[in-house]
TrEMBL record:
UniProtKB keywords: DNA integration, DNA recombination, DNA-binding
UniProt record, GO biological process: DNA integration; DNA recombination
Record-level Gene Ontology MF annotations: DNA binding
Domain Tyr recombinase: 225-410
Pfam family, one: Arm-DNA-bind_3
PANTHER family for this protein: PROPHAGE INTEGRASE, PROPHAGE INTEGRASE INTS-RELATED
Core-binding (CB) domain span: 115-202
Name of the protein this chain belongs to: Tyrosine-type recombinase/integrase
Family: Belongs to the 'phage' integrase family.
Gene3D superfamilies linked to this entry: 1.10.150.130, Integrase, DNA-binding domain, Intergrase catalytic core
Length: 449
């Protein structure tokens, strides 16, 4: 039977699917599509077919002196010679009727359970700092902040304890002490760091409850909620993060649609296709669905129409613009878009830990604030928000009178979002839109007749 050589291993190239190259005595090299080469051993023990991953092939290890067998263990980065030494160990275990794969798992579990909270915290920080962790890696600023909280406020109290000894009561007591000494913000971060360390342990295979999950943030400190309007730079961060969160593409588009149109969450959630007029580029919301009880017309920008076209393609059999996940006859739940925004905020905070949270209604505030900062006519903005004037006669007249101007303004708003995403200024777009809106002639006001 042919045997592998180091030269052959170095020349193995990845393919579209995992493939195997045999060595000897049941061992083979498995090559993944990403180019990782690992040594695996097929065997039967007690009537069962099993596979043991001996270790990952390392060209660097191949250049060094072969380590003694007692210095080796399954799962290490190894040379070909070292893999064969571990193979010999595994074969002896099989001959005794023992499962080397099960022994490997049990040893790993025992090692995991032996770690203290401090040990787990160190493995968490190493994992989050390691470039090999991919998307799990934290930004340096976020990692430094969490490390600082751990070193200053957590390590002295919890580092030497077993994970099982870190109870909800003990954690809550620590948070209360930190709140008194360092303030509520640090106390909240203490809970968050403990939460993340325990989640890292759970993700590593440890079966243990997370004490931080039994303590609400509000039980430690509450912060006064405030109205939130995103600045252009925050809009750019939010939309960039939105493209990478684990949410359905149509839900990400739904968030954009609400920002583009400035409507209330309920007005979008319950919207139906009979309200959409593609030919006139309008969304006609009946009075029964509006807060003030009056019909509302939303001029649709090109970007908003593109999103609706995608919705129609995906959900054409439903009466709703965006139906629920499991039932096309019901709209999405009231909490769905908020959950998407929560994940957006979490992603942004990986690089900007002080980024303030925001909800769906804050998109409407952002819409209003952005147009006001651009100094569009406040009458157009108020009507776009469906804020009725005190004078009822004026209200009926104005809703129709400024439809053309509002269409220009909302198209400009959509274009502003696009240029902000590119890191560019919207100054020229705004000036051009205002100029065109000011030139609207009476013969364009068909809705007055």
């Amino acid at each position: 039977m042919g045997q592998l050589t180091d030269k052959e291993l170095k020349n193995l190239k990845p393919r579209t699917r995992l493939y195997k190259v045999a060595d000897r005595d049941g061992m083979f090299a498995a090559v993944t599509p990403t180019g990782i080469i690992s040594f695996r051993y097929h065997y039967r023990v007690n009537g069962r077919q099993e596979v043991l991953t001996i270790g990952r092939y390392s060209a660097e290890a191949a250049r060094k002196l072969t380590r003694a067998p007692e210095a080796l263990d399954y799962g290490m980065d190894v040379s070909l010679a070292e893999a064969r030494a571990l193979l010999a160990r595994a074969r002896r275990q099989v001959e005794r009727g023992d499962s080397p794969s099960r022994a490997k798992a049990e040893k790993r579990t025992a090692s995991i359970e032996a770690l203290t909270f401090g040990g787990w915290a160190e493995t968490y920080f190493r994992h989050k700092a390691d470039p090999k962790s991919g998307a799990e890696r934290l930004a340096d600023s976020t990692l430094a902040m969490r490390r600082s909280v751990y070193d200053r406020a957590i390590a002295g109290a919890l580092a030497k304890l077993k994970l099982a000894e870190v109870t909800p009561q003990r954690l809550k007591s620590l948070c209360d002490e930190v709140k008194e000494k360092r303030g509520p913000a640090v106390a909240v971060h203490v809970r968050e760091v403990v939460l993340l360390v325990f989640r890292h342990a759970q993700g590593s295979g440890l079966d243990i409850s997370n004490p931080a999950e039994q303590i609400r943030t509000s039980a430690i400190a509450t912060f006064e909620p405030r109205d939130r309007a995103l600045s252009p730079s925050e809009i750019r961060m939010a939309l960039a993060a939105l493209d990478h969160v684990a949410a359905a593409p149509t839900l990400r588009q739904a968030v954009r649609f609400v920002l583009l149109t400035g409507v209330r969450k309920s007005e979008f959630i319950d919207a139906t296709w009979k309200e959409i007029d593609f030919s006139a580029a309008r969304w006609n919301i009946p009075g029964a669905r509006m807060k003030a009880g009056k019909p509302h017309v939303v001029p649709l920008s090109d970007q908003a129409l593109d999103i609706l076209t995608a919705f129609r393609t995906m959900f054409g059999t439903s009466r709703y613009l965006h139906p629920g996940r499991y039932d096309g006859e019901t709209p999405i739940s009231n909490a769905t878009l908020n959950r998407v925004l929560d994940t957006v905020v979490e992603r942004i905070r990986q690089d900007n830990p002080d980024f303030q949270s925001f909800g769906v209604h804050d998109l409407r505030r952002t819409f209003s604030t952005g147009l006001n900062r651009a100094k569009f006519d406040d009458r157009w903005i108020e009507m776009s928000l469906a804020h009725a004037p005190r004078n009822r006669i004026a209200a009926v007249y104005n809703v129709n009178r400024y439809l053309t101007e509002r269409r220009i303004m909302l198209q400009c708003w959509a274009d502003m979002l696009d240029v902000w995403m590119k890191g560019e200024s919207a100054k020229d777009l705004i000036a051009d839109a205002k100029k065109r809106a000011a030139e609207v002639h009476d013969d364009e006001l068909d809705d007055d007749l």
